[in-house]
Each structure stands twice: as structure tokens, then as C-alpha cells.
Design a protein that fits this description.
7-stranded mixed β-sheet, homodimer, alpha/beta, 23% helix, 304 residues, 2 domains
């Protein structure tokens, strides 16, 4: 299972009822953040999932609404007792931005590991998830991300019996160890595993015009987070001008990708009630919801 | 009248119910901020006094809890339509800090005027108030400020009659103009004004150990804002170690200054209910209250 919380759902300038962009991702006891707008540290406090387990921050780009909370968050991590290294990923410019912002957070009791990603496709691992970045179209280097959690295949007792493996050795095989049978044969875990099982995956792409990569990278995902900058159809020219999307465009990408669910987030200051326009998205992709600050959602494995 | 709102009353790390240090000062239709911790732009939105009238930001020092809201606030000013120059005052290091933070707010539609103050006494004017800075003891350059609003003397009709000034000319004198009488004499406004009248003043000093300058600069003020980092008496050694004050120490400075009222603000994360310790301050200075986020207070002229 992966727990996801949209800590802040505002884009550009926050409302006093809506914090700026940040997504808390919790998976198998570990956690990372996607973006860190102003107010993120307060929202983490409100959520109660804690600071110490957060191992990494993945930034989409360097507009202030996505990273203005970084110095405060880094200090909150320190206050929480962090001593392990902390990783930050982001597009080109990462080092310059973090160095600039650290003018007010110069001393930290843990090491910062900065991973500057290319403005394009790249792969890395975060909290046991396979992360894949891809370029968006925002008038500045902005990255979208897909995250995949592999699901180990299931132990197949029939295969084990068929190979004549004593039950006393099943536990080791289930834990991924190769075992030696009484007759001297070595059996690797793969030999007793069932077919591959579908893992979990989600995609996060905000601050962009529609690009084919979003639909392509979204294929087979359980969930896509896409921007809901403007709900109104008539704001399309404004969306084009500001390198953003209207609800319908995000929904069309979700439909094209064939994902299971779409969550719209990153709402314009002018969009006081995103819910009022959600039907513009649902007409194209029915499984759409508008995020709210602090909203928690999960993605689960299918079947056993 | 001066309106004052403690936008955020937290020190160090915010609680999710308590934003970081910032004071909104509104005087005669103009306004400035004292400090600008993370969340300040949201708190201004909540307060509803607006962005556009804010002409200046006065910073005490460069710990993140006092300036982490600067980039977001500068962008919110831009979004509000600011085109007039905006002034920022602060102790040595101002230029370096603002340049660092502006890595995520590089383009603003208004000019920033940076006024780096010495770490010591200095005088400047902000929104028609006379500002006086003084050095605090925080282990880094940190300034306290006193602000004075002069009150013009009152027009004295008896003096005007005594000088034989026709009533038709009184209006001009009241507006500060020199007038020429029918007999050729020139009369300056000062000649028809009453005695000097007491203006309004307040002091703001947080993040410091007690220093004599606080009591001295607080003499004759209507109100002092001092830090309430720790309420508990037994936290004195911690306060000494962290260059902060306990409630009782702030109250003693207010008593020594002979101010009218003391507002404690800038509470430690560990101090969840400042009110529980306010008697430690009131035992020394009865007119003490603990600030809350969004609390508004006023200082008024005495008499007519």
C-alpha cells in the first residue's frame, strides 16, 4: 500500500485556506515529499505522519510555490532529530536554488545529498520506489514523475511440492534465499514463485501544458496527480499563456493513459471552489476528484 | 491610532496552529511588516488588511523563523499589483540574505530598496513613523525597534484671536500654511498652535537576552512587544543557552521601562499554552497579555 496526502493544493499564491504544493508519500514505513511550498512544515504537523521518516524531497521545478517551504522544512527535520543524510532531487539548477535558500538555514545536523536530474528522462530510486522523470512544458525546466513499487511474486506451494522441497525449507525460499536440498540440489527462490504480479504506481505532473509524455508515462498507473490550475473552459487561452492546463485537458491525458483514477491539484488562486468545475473533467474521465489540503488517498495491491 | 496584528506568534518551528513571527502595523492608511516568517502571506490573507498598502518590511535578524516567508510575500505583493518601490530594512547581511532568498523570486514588477542598518542604534522613517533600532543580544546581529508617531499640536483659537487673525484664515493655518494678514503681517502656523502633545509609540524586541537598551528604549512607550520564548521559570538556563528570555525577564524589562502594556509573542514550540504561564509575567508587570495568531490591538492618542 502507498499512502498519499496532498498537504497543499494551491498554485501560485496560497489562499489562507489552501497551502502551496506538496505531496507526502508514505510507503512501507518510509516516506518522501514531492514539492515543498510555503507552509509544508505546518501541514506535516497537522497531518501527524511525522518528519523523521521522510528520507527525500523530489522537486518538480523552482517556482516559489513549489519550493518556498524548503528552508523551514529542512530546519524542522533538524528539530525532529534528523541525523541521517537527506536526499533532494530536482531538475537542473538544484544546487543553485538550495544554496540560495540555505542562506537562512546554513547549519544542519545532517548531510544533504543533491541529485540534479537532467531536463528529460531519468531513473532513480526513492524509498524503495522506482522513480522515472520526464520533461514537461512549463516555459522553464519542469519535471513530471512516475513512481513504481514492484510487487514480489507469490510463493507457489505446488511448485515447491513438485520439486520435492521439504516444507522446512519453504520459509527460507519465501524470504528470497537459495536453499540446498538434502539430495544436494540448489533451488533458487525464483523456481518456486508464481507469475509476476502487478505492482503499484502513480504519476505526478503539475505546471505544464499537455505533452504526450504524460499520457505515455501514465499508462498502467493506479493513480495520476495532474494539475487543476483552471476549471473553467474559457480559461484555456490563459492556461496556454501561463503554461498550465484546464481541468478538461488533464482529464483527457488521464483518459489517454488509461489510469484508474485522477486527482486534480494545484489550483489557481482564482479558483476558490474547484469542485464547482469537476464535471468539466468527469465528462472526459469520470474517475476524477479534486484534492483538498490534507486529503489522504491510498493505492492498494489488487487481489492477494 | 495604530493598528497592530500579530500575524504569527511562533518562534523556531511553527505549530500547525501557530504561524511564525510577523507583525502587521497599520497607521493612517499605510502599513509595514515587522519580520516575515513562513506563512506570513497566508496570515495576511486571513487578516484581510490587504497587501498593496504594505510599503516596507523591517527585519530583526536572519534566523529562518523571521524571514522564511520573504520570497512568498514578495511574490504575493507582485500578484496584488504592486508597482511602487518596496523597502526592506534589516541588520548587516540584508543584501546577502535577500539575494539568496530571491533565487526563487528573481523577477518582481517593483523595485526593492534594501536598507542595511548597522548592528547598533540607527534612525529611519517608515510609514510616517520615526523608527529607532538598537542592538539585542542573540548571539548574532539582531535588532530591536522603537516606533514613534508624532502628534501635531492642536490649533488654539484663543491665540489666533489674540493675534487678530480673521477666522477666514484659520483653515489655512490649521493645514500648516503660513498666512498673510490684511495688515501685511505674516503668521506661521506654529504661532497659533497649542502645547506639544504626546504621540504614540511602541517597541518590538524578540530573540534576545535582557539588555538595558530594551528598558531604556521602552521608556514612555504605549506598548512593548517582547519575546515569550519560555514561560516556565525553570527554563531560565535554557533561555540563557539559546539567547532567549523567560516570561518573567520580559515582564521585568517592561516594568523597568514603565510602558503601559506588554504583549508577549514568539513562543517556543514546546510552549503549547502560553496563557498557562502568563502569571509568571503578571507578577512582575500586571498589564501583560500573551499574543495569539491574528490578534489585533490598537494604540490610541490620549484625550482630544
Amino acid at each position: 500500500m502507498i499512502d498519499l496526502c496532498t498537504l497543499g493544493t494551491g498554485g501560485s499564491i496560497p489562499l489562507h485556506t489552501r497551502a502551496l504544493a506538496s505531496l507526502y508519500v508514505r510507503v512501507q514505513g518510509r516516506a518522501f515529499l514531492l514539492d515543498c511550498g510555503e507552509g509544508t512544515q505546518m501541514e506535516i504537523g497537522r497531518l501527524g505522519w511525522g518528519f523523521l521518516r521522510i528520507e527525500a524531497l523530489v522537486l518538480t521545478h523552482y517556482h516559489a510555490d513549489h519550493c518556498s517551504g524548503v528552508p523551514g522544512f529542512l530546519l524542522a527535520l533538524a528539530k525532529a532529530g534528523k541525523t541521517e543524510p537527506f536526499a533532494i532531487y530536482g531538475p537542473p539548477g538544484l544546487r543553485r536554488v538550495i544554496e540560495g535558500l540555505r542562506v537562512i538555514a546554513p547549519q544542519l545536523p545532517y548531510a544533504l545529498e543533491l541529485h540534479e536530474l537532467p531536463f528529460g528522462e531519468a531513473a532513480f530510486e526513492v524509498c524503495g520506489l522506482q522513480a522515472s522523470s520526464f520533461a514537461l512544458d512549463h516555459g522553464m525546466p519542469c519535471l513530471g514523475y512516475r513512481f513504481d513499487l514492484a510487487r514480489p511474486p507469490k510463493f507457489d506451494p505446488e511448485k515447491a511440492q513438485g520439486l520435492g522441497i521439504p516444507m522446512a525449507l519453504w520459509g527460507k525460499l519465501q524470504q528470497g534465499e537459495t536453499v540446498e536440498l538434502p539430495d544436494g540440489r540448489a533451488v533458487a527462490p525464483e523456481a518456486v514463485m508464481g507469475p509476476p504480479r502487478k505492482g503499484l504506481s502513480f504519476l505526478y505532473a503539475t505546471d505544464t501544458r499537455p505533452v504526450p509524455a504524460i499520457a505515455r508515462m501514465g499508462e498502467g498507473t493506479d493513480l495520476m496527480f495532474l494539475e487543476g490550475m483552471y476549471g473553467e473552459e474559457e480559461k484555456l487561452p490563459l492556461a496556454v499563456h501561463n503554461h498550465h492546463m484546464i481541468f478538461r485537458e488533464s482529464a483527457a491525458l488521464a483518459a489517454q493513459a488509461g489510469t484508474k483514477r485522477l486527482i486534480l491539484t494545484h489550483f489557481s488562486t482564482s479558483l476558490e471552489e474547484p469542485e464547482a468545475f469537476v464535471d468539466n473533467a468527469r465528462a472526459v474521465f469520470p474517475e476524477t476528484v479534486c484534492a483538498t489540503d490534507g486529503m489522504v488517498t491510498q493505492i492498494h495491491y489488487e487481489g492477494r
